[in-house]
Predict the structure of Bacterial EndoU nuclease domain-containing protein.
Amino acid sequence: MSDLERLCAALERTCADGTAVIDDLRRLRVRMLNMSAEIARLASAGDGSGAHVARTLQLELAEAMRRGADAATSIRQMQRLGREFINRTVGGAGITQNSADHVLDGHLSLRMEDGELRAWLSGGHFLGGRFHLQDLHVDAASGVTAVGRGDLTLSAEATAELNEILEILVGHGLAEPPKKSAGSTFYPLGWASEACAAAYTAAWNDPDGTRDSDSGRWSGTGYGLRIEGFYNPETGEFVSGWPVRAGRSR
């Protein structure tokens, strides 16, 4: 990993830590609001001196909440600037939005066969809320997670939304959630989608990576992960990129 990649990786970790801090600040604000309401109740029921102390404490809580809100705003600004730097530095030559969507969210394909609607999934290497997973395996060495053949399906919520659309278009939905027939790997648990995108972008631009024009396969390393995928040898465009478990080809 180059010095620039290490800097980008450190920036991404800082951005992720910032999200955790914002979540903590949000929870703290809720507690402070509840405390302020309780203080107001006690102030209304207390004597003059107690009410004065309570009102003073309420003002101090309000000021603390304001500073917390300012801190959250500053963190979000830092995250935005950090991720802009990562995108500009690492670059994304040859990576279209469609390919990025394929890697992270996956694509759903539909086809009519003998009057029956068939559906299947491809791509989708980010552990978001769109998928339902069975028998998830975590590789301790790389942090990459994996599922076997047929163990990745569209979530019940996403399938219900899809069926609502299909009812309008073809008059009926799918009998069961679409699945991915092949096995699949996922970027490490806890990684934000931006971190996943930065990793495969860095791997795609890895000067020590490989691109095989005969097979249309490429490989590289980004943010400490070995990443492989497909590309279009004719256009040079990135098609897909999945993380590889330590000591394996996928």
User: Anything to note?
Assistant: The radius of gyration is 24 Å. Residues 3-90 form one domain. DSSP finds five helices and 13 strands in the chain.
